[in-house]
Amino acid sequence: MRELLGLFLVLAILVIIPTVDHVFAAADEPGEYIDRRVLIWNLFFRMMVAAFTVGAVVSGTMIWLCWRFRESHPKATPTEYEKSGEFGAPA
Amino acid sequence: MVLELQKPRPVWQIMFSTHHTDVGLLYLIMSIAFLFLGGTLALLIRAELFFPGSQIIADSMTFNRIFTVHGTTLIFLFLLPSASAVGNYFVPIMVRYKDMAYPKLNAIAFWMIPPAGALIWLGFADFTWYATPPYSIISSPGPAADMWIFGLKILGISSVLGAINFVVTILKCKHPDMSIGQVPLLAWAFLSSSLIVIVAIPTFAAALLMLLTDRLGVTGFFNPVMGGDPIAYAHLFWFTFHPEVYVLVIPAIGMMYEIIPRFSRKPIFSKSSGIFAFVLLSVVSFSSWAHHMYATGMSFTEKTVFMLGTLAAVPASGMHVFNFVATMWNGRIKFLTPMMWSIGGIALFFSAGAGGVANAAMPLDFTTHDTYWVVGHFHLFVMGTIAFGTIGFIYYMFPYVTGRMYNETAGKIHFILSFIGTVLVFFTQHVLGLYGMPRRIFDYPEIPEWIVMNQIATVGAMIIGVSMLIFLINLIHSSAKGKPADIHDPFGLGGKYYYPFESKNPHH
Amino acid sequence: MGHHSNWPEWIYVGVIIAIMCWVGAEAWNVERLVEHVPADAETIIVTGQQWFWTFEHEDGTKEVGTLHVEAGKAYKFEVVSTDVNHSFNIHDYVVLMDAIPGRVNTVWFAPDKAGEHDIQCREYCGLIHYNMRGKLVVEDPLT
Ligand code: HEM
Ligand SMILES: [Cu+2]
Ligand SMILES: [Cu+2]
Asked: Is the CB–ligand 1 distance for residue B153 below 6 Å?
């Protein structure tokens, strides 16, 4: 539980501090305009980095699962539910 | 009930039947027919876009009508009825009741669909699947537009009747020995999606009537010339149709909950988290509708609220994925056709969701909104997740419906080709959207990147087309000539199924 | 069921929630920045109608189909429509705003370099929607 709290704390700080920073750093200087292309596409690429990282973990897990737990895998053993046949069908 | 095709009956006996498996069979056959009709239109669209300029479709109006009817058909005449087919077959059995709660109402709900389909197809309207005013009021040609409105009206009523029937069957007719927690996840899926339908559809039903009277010129609800507001329609429409996407996806997830444990030879990892995620999704599905309207000039606050409402739905979807992965973990997985479709569907579910999150992040919507990115996003859902889950389930129920086995090799080829095709078409369309190609266009300027990506997408679509032809032949051939199925364990998994249980407990 | 522990699922859900918070916060922040119209932005009234764009500058000059602006200045578009919904889009500058009859929607941008860019309609508006295209010409400042 400790570690969990710690994890969330770290994540929260990672999110909140840069945001607060940004909010107060945004000034309105005449003649100097923000470039919406830069802001928006940067945001897009940051999100794609996150999406592809998570995607790699998810699909990596799925591919490994399919490979490791296929019934033709040398180490495949009957599951503990096979004797009774209770896969969630009628009780 | 089972073995319809092994013990032939006169067609009219099935048509006038109110028994749930007969109505289910009607739903199934009709939805597959519309899958092929709507799919043909998709191939026409893709063929037209292979090159810039006009290829096979004579003019833009025809093109606009084609994509309108394509979308309407596949959402309302394929996905919804195919889910109803599964629900009709399985829900009464899963709650151990002899039929649906209201069998006649059930048959009526089904028989409303063919006339509605006829109105949509004979009219062939052009105002896109959301019929946005003021275009749909002042510019869209009748009688096609009016026929579409009546068709959708009928479909809406049919959906609500079907939903009421599912809710009553599950809550009131389940076996007295059964607690609500013992109701299987597939039936829970129908309970959740039916509750969404009952809350969501009336809004659109009202909007459709207002649209009709606006078209007749007697009112001006959505017509700015008469003091109305087109944005009001957008709110009413999306209040119904964002939740509706969960009405489509929840049954498909329920079908995966039926297939994944069985073919992994393990019970589901956590049934309670599955139920929790279904209920949570049904509630939060109502918190995000205006994410379709960021570009209509909403205030910063409104946009923020709907972005947060959209992101709130993600954890619940993620819980389902977790459940599937944890169920397969330590299983002994048999890769037969239904399992392959389910796993493919889960894999694409993630990509589709990630694209949705990007749409929902407000500033990114200005790069993606109404481009091919959005087309890619929702097709990864409707095709990659929902149709995949459903098609897998059609293979799964095939032996129970026909008493025969489908051809396994053909089923696998069908899956592999469809998976490749889906990735080719819809991942490419995401990138095409980032390059700025608007959706719903009949022709496009000769931008080299656009041409290449359109061609990749068209090739992918043709691959899907070929795979679906294999599917059709497999279905027809196997239902007449397939090997008789071992009805107690057609997939050789050694477990218990719902159908054999029921066939040992005849109820008629 | 029952005899497995649930903590991996809770961590997993926690991570998803954390990622969503991050997405929301980042998006909120960028949106806030790009929505803030600079005080000295020049107004251009953009009118969408089936199936072309008209532009009216602050000094009253009107252009049809092609819009001329100067690099280094900020412009605020007031997007309106006279018939059905359209969507005004300069994809190269990530400018997108619906043109909806009865409303005035605003969006702004500051072109930085001379050049030509496509303008297109991104909301379905009927027969020639596919070709409701225009040009943005960014010119170097005269001074
Ligand atoms: C559950 C399955 C889903 C389905 C069937 C689905 C379907 C759709 C459809 C059909 C559209 C396009 C509507 C149109 O303009 O014609 C759409 C757009 C959108 N979807 Fe999804 N969606 C699903 C899940 C999600 C999720 C999980 C998210 C976000 C977390 C999401 C976010 C969006 C957003 C923001 C748009 C608007 C994009 C735009 O027009 O700019 N969707 N979706
Ligand atoms: Cu939505
Ligand atoms: Cu348009």
From this structure: no
**What confidence score (pLDDT) does residue B171 get?**
95
Handedness of CA B291, B296, B300, B302 (dihedral sign): negative
Q: B126: domain range?
A: 11-481
For residue B3, is pLDDT > 90? no
Return the pLDDT at A22: 59
Identity of residue B224: P
Beta-carbon contacts of C37 under 8 Å, excluding residues fewer than 6 positions away, are C74, C76, C106, C108
Cα A57 off chain centre by = 8
- Residue closest via CA to ligand 1's atom 43 equals B378
Taking the CA of B286 as reference, the closest ligand is: 2
The better pLDDT of the pair C77, A23 is held by C77
In terms of DSSP bridges, do strands C95-99 and C86-90 run parallel, antiparallel, or are they unpaired? Answer: antiparallel
Q: Tokens 């013990």 correspond to what residue?
A: B7
Which positions in chain C touch B357 (Cβ < 8 Å)?
20, 23
pLDDT single digits (tens) B422-455: 999 999 999 999 999 999 999 999 999 999 999 9
- The finding on whether B28 has its CB within 6 A of some atom of ligand 1 is no
pLDDT single digits (tens) B289-342: 999 999 999 999 999 999 999 999 999 999 999 999 999 999 999 999 999 999
For chain A, how many residues are written?
Answer: 91
Q: Phi first, then psi: what are they for B219, rounded to 5°?
A: -130, 175
Same domain assignment for residues C65 and C108:
yes
User: Which two structure tokens, joined as six digits, stand for B430?
Assistant: 């995401």
* Residue entry with tokens 């025969």: B404
- Ligand 1: which residue has its CA nearest to atom 28? B356
User: How many structural domains compose chain B?
Assistant: 1
In this complex, which chains have at least 3 CB pairs below 8 Å with chain A? B, C
* Structure letter (DSSP) for residue B462: H
Q: Please tell me which residue of chain A has the smallest CA distance to C16.
A: A54
Distance between CA atoms of B64 and B360, rounded to whole angstroms? Answer: 27
Mutation for testing the B interface, residue in C37, C130, C133, C135 having most B CBs under 10 Å: C130
Average pLDDT rounded to a whole number, residues B479-488: 87
- CB burial of B187-210 (b: ≥16 within 10 Å; e: otherwise) equals bbbbbbbbbbbebbbebbbebbeb
| Residues C100 and C56 both lie in one domain | yes
* Angle, in degrees to the nearest 10, between helices C7-35 and B337-360: 40
Say how many Å lie between the CA of residue B257 and the centre of ligand 2: 24
B247-265: pLDDT as tens digits: 999 999 999 999 999 999 9
- φ, ψ for residue B94 (rounded to 5)? -70, -30
C11 in the same domain as C58? no
Cβ of B365 less than 6 Å from ligand 1: yes
User: What DSSP string runs through B227-246?
Assistant: T--HHHHHHHHHHHHHHHHH
DSSP C133: -
A81: confidence class by pLDDT, cuts 50, 70, 90: confident
Strand-pairing partners, residue B284, are none
Q: Which domain holds residue C55?
A: 42-139
B408 touches B415 (CB < 8 A): no
How far is the alpha carbon of A57 from chain B, nearest alpha carbon, in Å? 11
Q: Find out whether B158 and B117 touch, Cβ atoms under 8 Å.
A: no
Stronger pLDDT, A12 or B34, i.e. the higher one:
B34
Cis (ω within 30 of 0) for the bond into B251? Answer: no
For residues C130 and B481, give the distance between their C-alpha atoms in angstroms, rounded to a whole number: 49
Q: What is the identity of the amino acid at B403? A: G
Does B162 reside within a domain?
A: yes
Sheet with strand C75-81: strands edge to edge: C62-64, C52-56, C42-49, C75-81, C105-109
Same domain, residue pair C71 and C125: yes
Instruction: Give the number of residues written for chain C.
Output: 143
